[in-house]
Every structure is written in structure tokens, then in C-alpha cells.
Automatic annotation (TrEMBL), chains A, B:
Keywords associated with the record: Hydrolase
Transmembrane parts of this sequence: none
Domain Nudix hydrolase: 11-153
CDD domains: NUDIX_NadM_like
Protein name, entry field: NUDIX domain-containing protein
Lineage, broadest ranks: Bacteria, Bacillati, Actinomycetota, Actinomycetes, Kitasatosporales
GO MF annotations, alphabetized: hydrolase activity
PANTHER family linked: ADP-RIBOSE PYROPHOSPHATASE (PTHR43736), SLR1690 PROTEIN (PTHR43736:SF4)
Pfam families, per database record: NUDIX, WHD_NrtR
Keyword presence, DNA-binding: no
Length: 252, 252
DNA sequence: GCAATAGTGTCTATTAGACAATATTTC
DNA sequence: GAAATATTGTCTAATAGACACTATTGC
């Protein structure tokens, strides 16, 4: 019975990679950093880095997130800071050939954040930017712009998995509010759904649905006209995490 | 910029652990193996083992599954063998203290299998058995049977996550058929839902629902009376993977 | 006034769930 | 016949989606 012989395990490196999503200008965007060294030098990649020797996986993801964006993570398993992004584990990628140098297992995490002013608040990446996910996932069809090149490593697959997770999770949970600022209007929340799903939703039915789901939205009493038109009520995210009944994605 | 320095990564061991679920005697059961060496010697644990140096994570999970049960995996990303269990990645667990000996990151996988005759077809575990998940997840409240002791390591948490995944996934996918033999009746499929969810379902509405969902079930033409009563039509799983509309879990 | 967004009301087709009734087997 | 399971039919309350209509701002 050879398993669990601590002295004879194959050497692995373990990293965390981050799929950081936000909604900017009506488009679902992801954070990409430009690689400063080989392999894939100069190419865009997902932010990430090594897990430290005495660090839990989620802590490593939160640390990388803070280093890249200044955001503080707000995960289900931990005390919630005043202002933070949603962080959850996505999946783990361990193809033996995914990194040409050595065996690297990457535990990808998904982050949903409100629209942020500056993409690179500080960190060790040469440069960083938000890019629409369609741009990052496009195949490189004789185009010249660097952003249209495929992502380094298997990061296109990881990004695709993260986008798919986000698209399905806002159906049956209140996670769409993680894309909104602390106070937001029903119209702003609707535009999040429209951007993430890439569809148009009926504003009237949407309003009735979200305000009628208990625990989804809590009115703050304030109003705003930042979208123009009639002033809209401001809401905060309510305590509910699972939506029952779910939001229905049209044309499935 | 220190990330990705291949010569200075902390040493990790990477394992796969398996949550193998089946339905036996109207109860959701998981495969447990008895540990033959410290730590947790003599305690029950989830099957698993080291990922080999040149092996993908899913391949390692499929290999461990075959070693423990003789089952062949049938994953979405690979050619489907004639007869196989459903295999998918569950989550990754990497608390620095989860193994007292060294830093071990475990990539847990979820397996859904039809009822099997012998739990330990061959393998390196001293003994193995199916146990109801409630038994394995019970706290050790001054009981004496070994099966009621908590699982080794963080395996109770992993098993709980796997059970939760299975319970939610049969709602909106056709995965419940993975618990059935190749040919099965509507009543047998209903008893799978009842065992996994722990509820009673109306046989008449259930029948109308599953036979009315396109692509869920394909009649084979045969009938069986193995449940007693009027002969029931036999079905195979259809091509549909996502159920729309989903099966609704009562009392949520 | 017009344009834009917010919000309410109403109608209809669909559906989930309750449950009566019938069909076909074993005992 | 009695008991068990399978299968179909019917009714009702709830709901998703379409869309008319009103409200309140900025210009």
C-alpha cells in the first residue's frame, strides 16, 4: 500500500490564478496582466502567483487580488470587510504540459467586482487592463492588436469557465449584486444581467421580479437620477443568497 | 517581479480524493476506505492517492476510481466507455494543516455510480465499504461503532460538499441517470431523486415531468416487472444534459 | 413640449402540484 | 379479489412574458 508516503511524492508547484470580472460600459470585462518574462513574454494572462508555504488557497487568492487591484475579498467563509469583491474557488487545472517549465497545478478563483477606477492600483505586473471577455476569448485570426492574441497558458479555458460560472450563477443567486456598488438602482442591476448574459430584458417585468423576491433587495430610502429620467430608488443587497424562484435567462 | 520563479517554489504534494456516491436500498451512500497507516490509522477516509508526475488530474481520479471499484470513468471531456460512472472535479482543499505530515493539496472529484455489487473490487485499501452519507457525516457523539466516527482529515467537509453538489446538480441536469443502470424505469429514477433529496415525490407528476422533458429519457421498447405491479417501460438516458425546465425540489 | 428612465397594472398562455381514475401485473 | 406499481387525465393556483399606461426628472 504505497499511497501517502510523504518522502516520495512528485514535485509540484501550486499557484492561484484569478478570473476577475466586472461590468464596464455595458460589457462584461476581465482583468488581464501583461507577462514580463518568458514563457509567453509580452502576452496577456490572468493575474496569479504562487501559493506560499503556509498559506491557504483562498488566502493566496485574496492576497493576489489585493496586490493586483487593491480589492479586499469578501468570501462566504470569512468575515466580510466593509467593501469587497466576491471571491470563490472556480476549478483546478493540472495538465502536465500546461506550463512548459515544470509541473504547475493552478487553483483558479473567480472574483466578481464592481466597476473600478484604475485597473492596476499597484502590484508586480508590468501592466494590467480590463478587456471585454469576448476580446480575450477571440481566436487570433491574423489580427495584430496584442489584446486580440489568445491568452497565455490555458488561461483562455480558465477565463471561459469563469465566465460560464458567472453567467449561470446569477440565475439562481443574488451574486449579480456583487457587480454593483453598495447602493444601486433596479435599472443598474438590470444592466448587469444584460451585460453578463448579452441579452435585453424587459425593464418592467425585471423590476417586478427583483423587487418581489424576498431578501434580494433592501431599499435604502434614497433616490438617484444618475441614469437620467425619473429618480430611481436605491437598494442594497439583501441577505438572500439563493433566489427562489430563479431569474430566468431568455432563449435557452 | 518574483512570480513564476521555477527554482523557488514551496514544496507541495498533490493528491486526488474521491467522493463516490451511489444509491443503495433507498439511501444515498458513499464509498469509504479504512486507513491502514498513520495518521488516522484505522479510521475511515475517502479513497484517493497521489497524482503521478506525468498525469492529468482527471486521469489520476479515474485511475484511483478504477483501482478502488473497477469502475471506468465517463467524463464530459473524453470518450465514453460502454459502461461507466460520471466523474467531475469537485473542489480543491489546501489548508496548510489539513495533513499533519506535510503540505498536501487535494483535488477532490465527484463520482456518481449505479449500485455496485462489491465495494472493493481490488485496490490497496485494507477494507472498503458503502456507508450512508448521514452515517459518515454524523458527529461522533459518544458512539462506539467505527463507522460513526468522523472521517479522517477534512474528508467530512469534502464529502459534505460532494453531497451538496449532487443534490443541486440533479435538479437542473440529467445526472440522476448516472445513479441508474443502463436501462431503468421511471419509478427507479424517481427513487433516486427521493433518496438523494430525502423527500417523497408524487409518482404521477414525476412521471409526466420526466417523460415530457425532451431528451431526458429514451424508451428502449422493453418492459420490466422487477419492481412488482404493472410492467413499467424501460428507458435509457437521452442526450440532454441540462434540464429546462429543471426538476423542482420540494420544500425549499 | 420631448426624451428618457422608473414604476404599476392587466391580460394570457403555461405550468406546478393535487389528486381521481384506469391499467396490468403478482399474490 | 387484494395489493402493488404504472400511466393518463383533469382541475386549480401561481407565474412568466407581453405590453398599455402613468410618474418624474432634464433638456
Amino acid at each position: 500500500m504505497p499511497p501517502y508516503d510523504p518522502s516520495a511524492f512528485p514535485p509540484f508547484a501550486v499557484t492561484v490564478d484569478l478570473v476577475v470580472l466586472t461590468v464596464r460600459r455595458h460589457a462584461l470585462c476581465a482583468l488581464a496582466v501583461r507577462r514580463g518574462e518568458p514563457p509567453f513574454q509580452g502576452r496577456w494572462a490572468l493575474p496569479g502567483g504562487f501559493v506560499r508555504a503556509d498559506e491557504d488557497l483562498e488566502d493566496a487568492a485574496a492576497r493576489e487580488l489585493a496586490e493586483e487591484t487593491g480589492l479586499h475579498a469578501q468570501s462566504p467563509t470569512g468575515p466580510a470587510p466593509a467593501y469587497g469583491a466576491h471571491l470563490e474557488q472556480l476549478a483546478t487545472y493540472g495538465d502536465p504540459k500546461r506550463d512548459p517549465r515544470m509541473r504547475v497545478v493552478s487553483v483558479a478563483h473567480l472574483v466578481l467586482a464592481p466597476d473600478l477606477p484604475a485597473p492596476t492600483a499597484g502590484g508586480d505586473a508590468h501592466s494590467a487592463r480590463w478587456a471585454p471577455v469576448e476580446t480575450l476569448l477571440e481566436q487570433d485570426e491574423a489580427r495584430e492588436g496584442e489584446l486580440t492574441a489568445p491568452l497565455a497558458f490555458d488561461h483562455a479555458r480558465i477565463l471561459g469557465d469563469g465566465v460560464e460560472r458567472a453567467r449561470s450563477k446569477i440565475e439562481y443567486s443574488s451574486l449579480a449584486t456583487a457587480f454593483c456598488p453598495q447602493e444601486f438602482t433596479v435599472g443598474e442591476l438590470r444592466r448587469v444581467y444584460e451585460a453578463v448574459w448579452g441579452v435585453a430584458l424587459d425593464p418592467r417585468n425585471f423590476h417586478r421580479k427583483v423587487t418581489g423576491t424576498p431578501g434580494f433587495l433592501v431599499p435604502t430610502g434614497g433616490t438617484t437620477t444618475r441614469q437620467g429620467g425619473r429618480p430611481a430608488q436605491l437598494f442594497r443587497a439583501g441577505g438572500a443568497t439563493l433566489l427562489n424562484p430563479p431569474m430566468l435567462r431568455p432563449e435557452v
